[in-house]
Amino acid sequence: MAEMPFVDTDIEDECAMHATSELSIKKKRKRTTGREIEEGIERKKKKNKQYQPNYFISLPITNPKITNSIQAVQDAIIQKDQRLSKAMIRSGSFHVTMLVMHLSSEEEIRIAVDALSDSKIFVEDLLKGKRVNLSFQGIDHFRNQVGFVNLAENDHTTLLKEIAETMKKIFQEKRIMTGEERAFKPHLTFMKLSKSTELRKQVKKIDSDLYEDFKNHYFGDEILHRFDLCSMLKKKQPNGYYCCESSIVFGEKQAAEPDDAELVSLSKRLVENAVLKAVQQYLEETQNKSRQTDGSAAKTEEAASASKNESDNDNSK
Known about the structure:
The protein is built from seven helices and eight strands, in the order ααβαβαββαβαβββα. The protein is an alpha+beta fold. Helix 1 packs antiparallel against helix 2 and helix 4 runs antiparallel to helix 5 (155-173). It is found in: Cytoplasm; Nucleus.
């Protein structure tokens, strides 16, 4: 069974599920009193509430082939069970979580930004100029509560795991709390029941038969090119992606596949250029009109002066 995705705004709920799982295992190994179990759960809840992750390092998914394929799966599932429309993740939010952390102040956010910046040289050293293609293939789940797309196991995925471990050490060296000590399992979440409290009352689990036709489906490759420090709790961007505090960019990115940030930047430049051109045109037209007005006034004065001179000459005769 796959590990549980440890991302997004409902992590407290996911941690509770994980704690319940650990408690069940302990029950099998050793008999404990009801009071001890309750005290253990309360301590776990307090700890989780105090250190609940609220930021994460995101690897954004921007390849249209991948996002469109996942949307096709989502549509197919919704056609079979309309209620699950509330469980779907927006395509603009698709990402792979590299690392989660708890940042409790602006100072800690600044330290995390510095840690991400420091990570770039180490990531580039691991890449050694190579292009990393991350292949997304197959669908898996966690206890039928969360559905996600797997990364195919290959040398590139192994390299991604090395990068995640390296980044984790860099953040920990700066005393940034980086979540639980669990093995990194890269995945792309596309649906989860915990997105809606009302839905969880209606649907207890996601039937794997709903996506049976896509269990081994190849979704496409994402070229590794960017990591973002994102907030889980701040308002998302209009395109559905998370509020981003900082980013590092490296490697190659196919020119035919600009991401949302690049499109927004290009759009802004086009608008700025259009506005600048319009202002320049307006100033030129205004100046031309001013010159024409000045010229007309001068001609009128010259004509009036000439007429006066002729009148004076006639009088002198």
